[in-house]
Amino acid sequence: MKIGAVILSRYSSSRLPGKALMKIQGKAVLEYIVERLLLVFNKKDIVIATSQLESDNLIASFAESHGLNCFRGSLENVAERFFQAAQSLSFDYATRINGDNIFADVNVIRDMVKITQNNNYSFISNVKDRTFPKGMSVEIVKMSHYKSLMPKINCSEEYKEHVTLYLYDHVLEDYYFFYNRTFPEAAGIQMALDSNDDLDRAKNIIVKFNKPHWHYNMQEVFQIMKEYKYE
Questions:
Q1: Segment holding 200, helix H or strand E
Q2: Does the pTM of the predicted model rise above 0.85?
Q3: Residue 177 belongs to what H/E stretch?
Q4: Is pLDDT at 50 greater than 70 in this prediction?
């Protein structure tokens, strides 16, 4: 069983253009994400999926300079890009990570990968009902199952844009939803980078780290976030 990670990223983000390569403490946002994923996946099993737009040459250059796989596909059909990126590395299961999830929780990803390895689910997700913060979403899809859904996904512009929406709209018995039962206080709060305010918050959190960033889990990031909010 080959389980890999697909980081969906594009330079031309509508709300915060160029966010993937913006630097915090001298390090690009994508680099923070990759360094966290490397604690769970082998480097050869991580692929950055970006578009064929000229502006995304910068994303491809980042991947090349860091020795990472890069797949370039459709800008609008993100579902197809995700699927083809996973296929390019022959993943049996693809872990979908957004390119603005700078605080992706290593322990959550590791736990969900273990669930995948020990069971035969077609879809494993921590997104349903938003018990985790936005920006810590993890979705693992069995690629043979996703392949069977592609004709239906490609019939809808909404499903093509939102990679896993079809799966939530058509839940099956062999889907597993992973819930945050240990730290409900963090449910649904914003930790993704969608705006300049989010970027400023991330900078103010990271500057307070006194150990490597990948050692900070959801609870620790949330605690620093609360301190920043009330300063």
A1: helix 196-206
A2: yes
A3: strand 175-177
A4: yes
